[in-house]
């Protein structure tokens, strides 16, 4: 187990990068605590795999350092970093039994057979593979093959970090849900530093204590799932997390007052940053259909089960509201109320209000 530090890390795949756009990772500074559960979350192409490969040693960064417990490992090859990795697709030995597959990483390091046996059975029980231990891996379903792959990642007790790269891609939706919570439970039991890479917010938010949100090669926010939901530091986080995401609406700011479509909007607190582009962010959960406020027209309503998402239009702007009441019919004229304590200002994408103290 180890604390992982990324120090001024940058990476370009080009031999002579000319500007920031030529970098797959712009600049990353991070400290990951020993034993923590972390997720790297972001859309395709934001640099997650690049970062993972730098940590595992498959890639040497163009600039900066990777430290494990303060020791510089930037130039160490993967096999000297003591890392376990679980990939998107199963990496197993088809001709071996499930038992031997799970035992392999331990036997390979000379662990004695009694310990191998205890550990294999423990991991197999956690992953509900006990009754398949004697089966040949080739006879298993893709789901179970991927479970073995995960088991092989989890079986060693001496690793610095276990990294999961979109490990649930091949798993069917029902089992996905179970494995997601199982992985969280496993982390609590074995307390090894784990990094989980995904573009799926549900997977990231279920698994991680801390989520690192990336966009275009940059970290835009690191926070607990609640922090990311409650107070996005960037409009990208607001929009990317939540279903539907945060309403991001253009406003004009004059004399400390923000106006959306000509209506003054009360913010969570004082404005502390200026910018060329100003927007407010308010989650649909905090937009109420009220008796007075900003006039809007209902476009449609979608019943999501426990609540309804009402899509309204204010001029050309879509504003989503969540309600647990019977939604108004399409075409109805309504008024919107934005909960002031949950309405933030963003300047050039970054949060620009503080909470009143
Ligand atoms: N081997 C490579 N050579 C050149 N450019 C690359 C290489 N690998 C990745 N890139 C580029 O680097 C950027 C980051 O890619 P990366 O694969 O790290 O993103 P990602 O978030 O993992 O995406 P995905 O979820 O699709 O794997 C992208 O613009 C990609 O095109």
Automatic annotation (TrEMBL):
Q: Which GO terms describe its cellular component?
A: ATP-binding cassette (ABC) transporter complex, substrate-binding subunit-containing
Record Gene3D superfamilies: 2.40.50.100, P-loop containing nucleotide triphosphate hydrolases (3.40.50.300)
Taken from the record, one Pfam family name reads: TOBE_2
What molecular function terms (GO) are annotated for this protein? ABC-type ferric iron transporter activity; ATP binding; ATP hydrolysis activity
UniProt KW keywords: ATP-binding, Cell membrane, Membrane, Nucleotide-binding, Transport
The keyword Cell membrane is annotated on this UniProt entry:
yes
Q: Which domain of life is it from?
A: Bacteria
SUPFAM superfamilies, per database record: MOP-like, P-loop containing nucleoside triphosphate hydrolases
Against InterPro entries, the record matches this protein to: AAA+_ATPase, ABC_transporter-like_ATP-bd, ABC_transpr_FbpC, ABC_transpr_MalK/UgpC-like, Mo/tungstate-bd_C_term_dom, P-loop_NTPase, Transp-assoc_OB_typ2
Q: Which residues form the ABC transporter domain?
A: 4-241
Q: Which family does it belong to?
A: Belongs to the ABC transporter superfamily.
Q: What is this protein called?
A: Glycerol transport system ATP-binding protein
Which species is this UniProt entry from? Jhaorihella thermophila
């Amino acid at each position: 187990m180890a604390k992982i530090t990324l120090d001024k890390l940058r990476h370009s795949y080009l031999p002579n990068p000319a500007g920031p756009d030529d970098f797959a990772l712009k600049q990353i500074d991070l400290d990951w605590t020993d034993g923590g559960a972390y997720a790297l979350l972001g859309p395709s192409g934001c640099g997650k795999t690049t970062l993972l490969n730098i940590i595992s040693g498959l890639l040497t960064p163009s600039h900066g350092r990777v430290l494990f417990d303060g020791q510089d490992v930037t130039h160490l090859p993967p096999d000297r970093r003591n890392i376990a990795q679980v990939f998107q697709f199963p990496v197993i030995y088809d001709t071996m039994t499930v038992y031997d597959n799970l035992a392999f990483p331990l036997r390979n390091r000379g662990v004695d057979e009694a310990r191998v046996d205890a550990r294999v059975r423990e991991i197999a029980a956690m992953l509900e593979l006990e009754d398949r231990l004697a089966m040949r891996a080739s006879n298993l379903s893709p789901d179970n093959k991927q479970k073995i792959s995960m088991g092989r990642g989890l079986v060693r007790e001496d690793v610095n970090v276990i990294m999961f790269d979109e490990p649930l891609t091949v798993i069917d939706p029902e089992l996905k849900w179970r494995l997601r919570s199982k992985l969280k439970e496993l982390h609590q039991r074995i307390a090894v530093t784990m990094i989980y890479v995904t573009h799926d917010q549900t997977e990231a938010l279920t698994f991680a204590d801390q989520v690192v949100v990336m966009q275009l090669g940059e970290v835009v926010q690191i926070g607990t799932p609640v922090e990311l939901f409650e107070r996005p530091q960037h409009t990208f986080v607001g929009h990317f997390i939540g279903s539907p995401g945060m309403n991001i609406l253009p406003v004009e700011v004059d004399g400390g007052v923000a106006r959306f479509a000509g209506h003054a909007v009360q913010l969570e607190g004082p404005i502390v940053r200026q910018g060329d582009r100003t927007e407010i962010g308010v989650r649909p959960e905090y937009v109420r259909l009220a008796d007075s406020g900003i006039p809007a027209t209902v476009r449609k309503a979608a019943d999501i089960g426990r609540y309804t998402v009402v899509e309204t239009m204010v001029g050309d702007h879509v504003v989503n509201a969540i309600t647990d009441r019977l939604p108004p019919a399409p075409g109805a004229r309504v008024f919107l109320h934005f909960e002031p304590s949950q309405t933030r200002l963003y300047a050039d994408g970054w949060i620009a209000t503080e909470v009143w103290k």
